[in-house]
Amino acid sequence: MPSAVRFGVNYTPSVGWFHHWLDFDLDSVRADLDSVAALGLDHIRVFPLWPYFQPNRTLIRERAVADLVRLVDAAAERGLDVNVDGLQGHLSSFDFVPAWTRTWHRRNLFTDPEVVEGQAAYLRTLAHALADRPNFLGMTLGNEVNQFSAGPHPDPDRATSGQIDAWLARLLAACEEGAPGKLHLHAEYDATWYQDDQPFTPAQAARMGAVTAVHSWVFNGTAQRHGRTSVPAEHHAAYLVELSKAWADDPNRPVWLQEVGAPAPLVPPEHAAAFTEATVANALDCPDLWGITWWCSHDVSRDLADFPSLEYGLGLLTNDRRPKDIARALTKAAGEHTYAPAPRTTALVVPAHPSRRSLCAPGGPVYDAFFRLVADGARPTTVLDERAADADHLAARGITEVVTSDQVLPTPPGGTRS
């Protein structure tokens, strides 16, 4: 039976960007949320800046928490559900981490017991403050926190995968303590799926938390290598959704496309709507999709300095809250989609061991084979090498054909796969 997929947007305030928490203006927030609700979307993802909310390990600012509650209540008035990211963390090339973890107080974000308990107290406090709000979806631990754990970060907080397991378990438990039964999850950028030395692993992403989150950005080499209208670029989000399923223990685990955007100049503004239409249509062909949350709501003001140039124009709406063509494309998809994708019966084998993740990255043999299959009209998913002969696992997922990357031959021009 057809069902609904959630359509939403990552909320970037039009005035002051995320620094708006310093001078919180509810009227400005309400105007922003009016412009989001007018697009026909049903949820937002919001970002408290961690140092502003918890400037000292034992001080969580009551006024900041109250402002977050006011934002969530304003969203409810406009029919918008809210997911809250706690540990900000990293946003749009800037790091926001409190002084009690850096320089003279340098301590590891993932392994220092006092830091972890401070983080747990903070997440539990935010979750508890919102637990009784019916439009509160739940907590995301933080935005792409894995970028702190390895290169290319200039000053990483190194940890083992086992230590990250413990960190995730502790902080997800803290969210559950604060708001039992809500949709609590963690979310990383695509190095989790592609980078061999990342301590955040695909198994953690696909097995811990209520849903699997994927963040799709074609500036990772996909658009540079293949172009904005290529099969890999237009199907990259769908690829990450299907790649994540190889590691899931639940054959029907929901996957949330929590971030996806149209980054200029790789996707020029005049082509952003077409890119959006294609990306969304292809993601909607993935079973078990929880939702699509576009990055982002409003452009960053040009009055703010030092952002990478692409960050200024990623909004569905301009800085003065006018919808762009890309907004109209997402509105159309949200209003017209019927979600009833058929099972994906062909599975491409991927390596289970995290030290071989780069085979799945842009330019890797698994990545290339997946998109050759797509170009030839197949609708592939993925399966771990250690499960490729497990008849019960394959049957539970509706898989009837298993192929390896070396069995997927390059497609000749104008031809089909043999």
Number of domains: 2
Helix content: 25-40%
Strand content range:
5-15%
Q: What's the CATH class label of the largest domain?
A: Alpha Beta
How large is the radius of gyration?
21 Å
Please give the CATH architecture of the largest domain: Alpha-Beta Barrel
For CATH, the homologous superfamily of the largest domain is named as Glycosidases
Backbone structural class: alpha/beta
Q: Quote the average pLDDT.
A: 96
**DSSP, total strands:** 13
- Reading the helices and strands in chain order gives EHEHHEEEHEHEHHEHHEHEHEHEHE
How far is it from the N-terminal to the C-terminal residue, by CA? 34 Å
- How are strands sequenced across the largest beta sheet? 7-6-3-2-1-10-9-8
> Tally the helices: what do you get?
13
Highlighted features:
418 residues, alpha/beta, TIM Barrel, three-stranded parallel beta sheet, 13 strands, globular, disordered C terminus
